[in-house]
Amino acid sequence: MTSAQNAPGAPGAPAIQAHALTVHRYETWSLTSGHVLQGVDLDIPSGAVVGLVGRNGAGKSTLLRTLLGLQTADEGHSELLGCPSTALTDAVKARLGYAAQTPDLFAGLNGYEHLEQMAQVYPAFSDRLALALAARLEVPMGRNAETLSAGDQQKLAVVLALAHDPDLVLLDEPVASLDPIARRDFMRVLFSARQREAPRTVLISSHLLSDLERVVTHVLFLREGRVQLFEGWDECTESLRVRPCPERPSALQPGELHWSAAQGGRLLVDTRRAVAAPTDQALGMEDLMEVLNT
User: What is the pLDDT of residue 219?
Assistant: First the structure.
């Protein structure tokens, strides 16, 4: 029996959970295999805004698709709003919003016709909210999807992902094709487009780290399919430091997180568990990305 606290969408329950989530990569031409995701563990609280960060090929898109049940994990399991990713109920699906890296739009339909299609799928779909979002993002709703620029296609996909006021939103590089002003407007829309008092949880991947840095509560770094770091962003800025370390340590000590060979050798430390040093330097998100990937 499922307890009330662990029931789908129960107050206090994590919005996203994953345990040992693993997806294999099979190279049929060479009969070899590898991993796209390797033993990913996650426990993302309700209301968190999580920046999903990593180099191309780190597994970000695969993680999002697997969490949504669009791709099957080879090992482990995951849940969204307390419901298994592989068996999401209609009630849970109605509370999810998703925009893929390549917008999944209908050729031959204009923006208004896309809204009509979505209204048939989501009971809570709001035409008023959708049109307000489209106006704020300056989406040319009267044009067919295939005639839109890449940026306008992304904006329309975001409108469709948010127009039913979802509690959990997963976004894969949603601003990659947008100009700086459109990216700013998108971030405002993402956090203001709620029609009721309820926390919205967001998992968003992006290479535009300066944009993420301004809005996230947590950051999730992936490298070669593994979680390198999952931490509150305020805790990262307050406690993570990099210090010169020319030689690679034979073993990392408590509080030492990662050694980077770049820039003559640097050591990433957590000053909550390691003694601070005069040479320690604070890091922004771009700096942290570089240290963790070199």
Answer: 97
